[in-house]
Amino acid sequence: MQPIVNLIATDDRIFKFRHPLPTDKKLDKYAMLVLCGRKWGLVCSITRLVHFGKLPEELRRKMEACARIDAMFITSTRPGKPQSEIFQRAIKTYAETGYADEWQLHHQGGPAGYEPREWLVTPTTSDEVNVGQAYAWNPSITGAKCEDTILVGANANAVLTTTDGLPTVSVALADGTKIARPAILEVV
Fold it and tell me: 152: domain range?
């Protein structure tokens, strides 16, 4: 795999930058890693977070809200669905989680391919989802972010960038199904 994007932020920089360029700032307690890699032409994107010490409850709530929004993105990205409709559902989900305005602070992602995002989906993007497309959504709330790359299948979507051995949060969907999304790795 060819690494094409390697971003990292630690501690207070996570709350300031959602796409942080690496600096010489040393890690104290909290780190965010954002990676994009290309293999066989497809770029996959992933973000993971780690916290050393007890995770503050506010940060846990933010990550759980991001996981809920991410689960909505993943399960709503289905063949024939207009991307604008998915985006409008995301705006609604941000509000339902208590973070109504956070979607405006960073792009939400979109179709992936030869680039990390072929284009960014907006509330007015008219394109529809197709089978075989890859998407990388990245909902974020100041201090927390979820990001994985999915492949749209005819019957279900597959998360291509799962990370075995790292913690997840189980998000219960309206239909009763559950989807695992990344949690912040807490090293106590």
Answer: 2-187
